[in-house]
Amino acid sequence: MQPPARRRALPALLPLLTCSLALALASEDVKKEITRSKNLEKSGISRNNDIVLDLKGIVFVIQSQSNSFHAKRAEQLKRSILKQAADLTQELPSVLLLHELSKQEGAWTILPLLPHFSVTYSRNSSWIFFCEEETRIQVPELLEVLRRYDPSKEWFLGKALHDEESTIIHHYAFSENPTVFKYPDFAAGWALSIPLVNKLTKRLKSEPLKSDFTIDLKHEVALYIWDKGDGPPLTPVPELCTDGEDTHCATAFHSFLPLCGSPVKKEDIFVAVKTCKKFHGDRIPIVKQTWAGQASRIEYYSDYAESSIPTVDLGIPNTDRGHCGKTFAILERFLNHSHDKIAWLVIVDDDTLISISRLRHLLSCYDSGDPVFLGERYGYGLGTGGYSYVTGGGGMVFSREAIRRLLASKCRCYSNDAPDDMVLGMCFSGLGISVTHSPLFHQVSITTIKY
């Protein structure tokens, strides 16, 4: 048993011990906070948003398209940005539509336009902020986000994506560990600081872009900026969002199917399935069991007429690759032998999966009287005067007017086994008809991407 004096002293010591412990913990927290602040300061990130930035310092670039539907959506977003800026009683920022900036075929690949941004905006701007036409932007929140980053440093900001496994569309890059490389989700918006734009411009002048394929632009842009470690990696920004459900989000993206009125009638869409004799027994049954029943007008084009399917022999020998001769024969047949003047032609491979009901909704947004060439857009040699094309594996959609102009031009295959999608892209480019890109078409599965 403790003596009475010691029992009385113990309660008096407890507050002192508690206070000392609290001071020790607080001191440790202060040390951590100081260390963290120093690290943030070194990296160019401000925790107190004390970087001076107004909206005039941000150049908004909407990755728009010339097709009337997409141009209209981009204009709506532009008006929203300017209205929000006006509500903040700030000087209005520059809001640019990508398709209006240059007639260059490869303008949509962004990199060729960086010299223009450097020359035009480097003196009075701090950031180039890119977004898609369906990106929704909370301008005040975005302004606060960008104020965290020192605009005198090289920044590449965005919502980070990575591959769960190596994939062919990324040329199996980082095959040992694909998760290490981050690239931006364009739908959430992404930003380049002006010092980085200037650096990339110098590189473009000394090292012109290679004549190569453009397949997944967001991955290829990130690779170019990273430059095998000589450039900055993507800095993930949690406020750049696609779901938009979190209150902290400065951006959101609505990926739902666009609704532009009543769906196109099934009778106004003709579906052409490219096949060959060796796939009649295994692929065609799957097409019929899955989506073919949704189509009102469908034909199977082969190198062999088989009445049980039935298939149509176009008189074009089967080729192991390319299929250009077969595709142009389908186009000729559609234009000259479909007496009902059907508005739309869809050409798919015999291993393509398609939702006719969703396609009908999508096509309600387009005017079949315009020359529409729609699908997933790829590019070839765009840095050196090449062309865009719709990759065939994801399905190609043509308006009747587009086919009429194409066949009237006499642009044709240089051989039956030439790559049909690339020849079509080259022909339409020569006619001044732009490829219309839709993210609803996919050449390959997107399940390997981690969001």
UniProtKB/TrEMBL annotation:
<dbReference type="GO" id="GO:0060021">
    <property type="term" value="P:roof of mouth development"/>
</dbReference>
<protein>
    <recommendedName>
        <fullName>Beta-1,3-glucosyltransferase</fullName>
    </recommendedName>
</protein>
<dbReference type="GO" id="GO:0005789">
    <property type="term" value="C:endoplasmic reticulum membrane"/>
</dbReference>
<keyword id="KW-0812">Transmembrane</keyword>
<dbReference type="InterPro" id="IPR003378">
    <property type="entry name" value="Fringe-like_glycosylTrfase"/>
</dbReference>
<keyword id="KW-0732">Signal</keyword>
<dbReference type="GO" id="GO:0001501">
    <property type="term" value="P:skeletal system development"/>
</dbReference>
<dbReference type="GO" id="GO:0006004">
    <property type="term" value="P:fucose metabolic process"/>
</dbReference>
<keyword id="KW-0328">Glycosyltransferase</keyword>
<keyword id="KW-0808">Transferase</keyword>
<keyword id="KW-0256">Endoplasmic reticulum</keyword>
<keyword id="KW-1133">Transmembrane helix</keyword>
<comment type="function">
    <text>O-glucosyltransferase that transfers glucose toward fucose with a beta-1,3 linkage. Specifically glucosylates O-linked fucosylglycan on TSP type-1 domains of proteins, thereby contributing to elongation of O-fucosylglycan.</text>
</comment>
<feature type="domain" description="Fringe-like glycosyltransferase">
    <location>
        <begin position="119"/>
        <end position="206"/>
    </location>
</feature>
<feature type="signal peptide">
    <location>
        <begin position="1"/>
        <end position="26"/>
    </location>
</feature>
<keyword id="KW-0472">Membrane</keyword>
<dbReference type="GO" id="GO:0160265">
    <property type="term" value="F:O-fucosylpeptide 3-beta-glucosyltransferase activity"/>
</dbReference>
<dbReference type="GO" id="GO:1904888">
    <property type="term" value="P:cranial skeletal system development"/>
</dbReference>
<dbReference type="GO" id="GO:0060271">
    <property type="term" value="P:cilium assembly"/>
</dbReference>
<keyword id="KW-0325">Glycoprotein</keyword>
<keyword id="KW-0294">Fucose metabolism</keyword>
<comment type="pathway">
    <text>Protein modification; protein glycosylation.</text>
</comment>
<dbReference type="GO" id="GO:0010467">
    <property type="term" value="P:gene expression"/>
</dbReference>
<keyword id="KW-0735">Signal-anchor</keyword>
<dbReference type="GO" id="GO:0036066">
    <property type="term" value="P:protein O-linked glycosylation via fucose"/>
</dbReference>
<feature type="domain" description="Fringe-like glycosyltransferase">
    <location>
        <begin position="263"/>
        <end position="444"/>
    </location>
</feature>
<dbReference type="GO" id="GO:0060173">
    <property type="term" value="P:limb development"/>
</dbReference>
<dbReference type="Pfam" id="PF02434">
    <property type="entry name" value="Fringe"/>
</dbReference>
<dbReference type="GO" id="GO:0007420">
    <property type="term" value="P:brain development"/>
</dbReference>
<keyword id="KW-0119">Carbohydrate metabolism</keyword>
<dbReference type="GO" id="GO:0043010">
    <property type="term" value="P:camera-type eye development"/>
</dbReference>
<dbReference type="GO" id="GO:0009306">
    <property type="term" value="P:protein secretion"/>
</dbReference>
<comment type="similarity">
    <text>Belongs to the glycosyltransferase 31 family.</text>
</comment>
